Amino acid sequence: MAWAIDNAHSEVGFAVRHMMISIVRGRFERFSGSVNFDEANPARTTVDVQIEAASVNTKEGQRDGHLRSPDFFDAEKYPLISFKSKRVNVVDGKHARLVR
Predict the structure, then answer these.
(1) How many Å apart are CA 4 and CA 7, to the nearest integer?
(2) Are 26 and 57 in contact (CB under 8 A)?
(3) Taking the mean position of all CA atoms in its chain, how far away is CA 35?
(4) Is residue 20 over pLDDT 90?
(5) pLDDT of residue 100
(6) What single-letter DSSP state applies at residue 94?
């Protein structure tokens, strides 16, 4: 069963420690992707996501500009961040771990 990721009900976010003092949280505003769920064999489920690197948002414009720069994402040269799952490890009847 295939689903397109619904941006209105999904989020691509991150949290990183900054200088061992605080945690910076952010998100990507633009992304798309799909989940192909294999109901008969959940371990064969796949996930494919494309994230627009320039859509990074940490609520701090100067930091976001730096993240878009060649120092980090180099969003001009590499506009998309891709995630494709390699496998799914089924933990139990209701849980699984997605492996990149």
Answers:
(1) 9
(2) yes
(3) 13
(4) no
(5) 82
(6) S
Cβ pair 89, 97 in contact under 8 A:
yes
Question: Kind and range of the H or E element at 65?
Answer: helix 61-68
Backbone angles phi and psi of 79, in degrees to 5 = -70, -20
CA distance 91 to 96: 5
CA-CA distance, 7 to 75, in Å (whole number)?
Answer: 21
pLDDT score at 93: 84
Backbone angles phi, psi at 56, to 5 degrees: -60, 140
**Among the listed residues 75, 40, 39, 43, the one whose alpha carbon sits nearest the alpha carbon of residue 57:** 75
The answer to whether the CB of 42 falls within 8 A of the CB of 48 is no
DSSP per residue, 5-18: --GGG--EEEEEEE
pLDDT in tens, 22-57: 999 999 999 999 999 998 998 899 999 999 999 999
Dihedral sign for Cα 49, 72, 14, 86, please.
positive
